[in-house]
Design brief:
The complex is a heterodimer of chains A (about 220) and B (about 110). With about 220 residues, chain A is of the alpha/beta class. Chain A is built from eight helices and eight strands. In chain A, helix 1 runs parallel beside helix 4. The radius of gyration of chain A is 17 Å and the shape is globular. In chain B, helix 1 packs across helix 2. The chains are: A alpha/beta (about 220), B alpha+beta (about 110). The structure holds guanosine-5'-triphosphate, magnesium ion and zinc ion (ZN). Magnesium ion binds next to helix 2 of chain A. The site of magnesium ion has 4 residues of chain A, from helix 2.
Amino acid sequence: MAVVTIERKVLQKNDELAQENRELFARNGTYVINLVSSPGSGKTSLLEKTLAQLKDRIKIAVVEGDVQTDLDAQRVAKFDVPVVQIVTNGGCHLEAKLVQDALSNLRLEGLDLLVIENVGNLVCPAGYDLGEAIKIVVASTTEGDDKPLKYPAMFRNASVLIINKIDLVPYVNCNLAELRENALQINPHLTVFETSCTTGAGIKEWSDWLLAQTGKH
Amino acid sequence: MHELSVAESIVTIIKENTDGGDAKVSAVRVRIGELAGVIPESLEFCFSAITAGTSLEGSRLEIERTAIVCHCEACGTDSTVNGLVFRCPRCHGPHITITSGNELQVVEIEIDD
Ligand SMILES: Nc1nc2c(ncn2[C@@H]2O[C@H](COP(=O)(O)OP(=O)(O)OP(=O)(O)O)[C@@H](O)[C@H]2O)c(=O)[nH]1
Ligand SMILES: [Mg+2]
Ligand SMILES: [Zn+2]
């Protein structure tokens, strides 16, 4: 019997491709965010609100990850920004390779912001670097306040938490202070926004912050 | 759910290290941190499912778990993160680096000759 020492990261291939993506983004001066959440927390809704705020001020493009459909891409296309759909055919997360392939359909030159909407899932996308500058996790009030404790890897790897659907707080069992506290316990460095895509609350604060991150304003 | 693609990546790494795979691999040792977001039972299931009927059928997947360990930038203490509280247990400062717990690695493989 022989033992072969390997000591290699299982997702090393993905990390390498993500690094290639990151260098490509850097060369083009494109700021890239990776939007993650459970299914239905409001990623696409937030994206629509954000596009309404920012699309005339900076150049934005979108990569939409979806297990099966291009429904979200259709919603985004209404804003007249370039959008590329990745259908994962059952895959529960985006990988750097899929993003790299999608990039061949996008013009990065002069692009200020690229938003990648990941597949709705709080577990799997946590481990897959896509080459983004930051991960943004969206948690909605209808999911309750314990999500950060149940999905620590995602909240730990994210830089921003958007608490969405705050208009529903009176009707659901979710304590905003508790949600915030749970998230900050997992990751004290999180920047937190509270939004409602229905009333528009918090959208401007979030969009202004994002605009500032791109360094183009 | 992504344990399936993790299992596929492990198989690829094994093949790359056994010249394509004629050697009889009796065991594969992997290291998975508590914060890696991979469920060991689910990975074991996926690994045996995708290796069934291949030269890797029957190879044992041995999983070593690593605890979440942090280093405090403020006071220099290394400690285990318990109960998912990501602060230094000694000085309660938030400026910690995770030094262990994110691992998802193939450590070694055992080949029968
Ligand atoms: N009340 C309320 N509903 C919202 C809010 N934001 C989104 N929704 C609704 O929540 C549902 C899901 O929103 P999406 O934006 O499609 O969520 P998503 O995260 O993109 O969903 P997936 O891509 O399928 O994971 C839709 O019916 C939205 O209209 C909000 O702030 N308040
Ligand atoms: Mg969506
Ligand atoms: Zn300390």
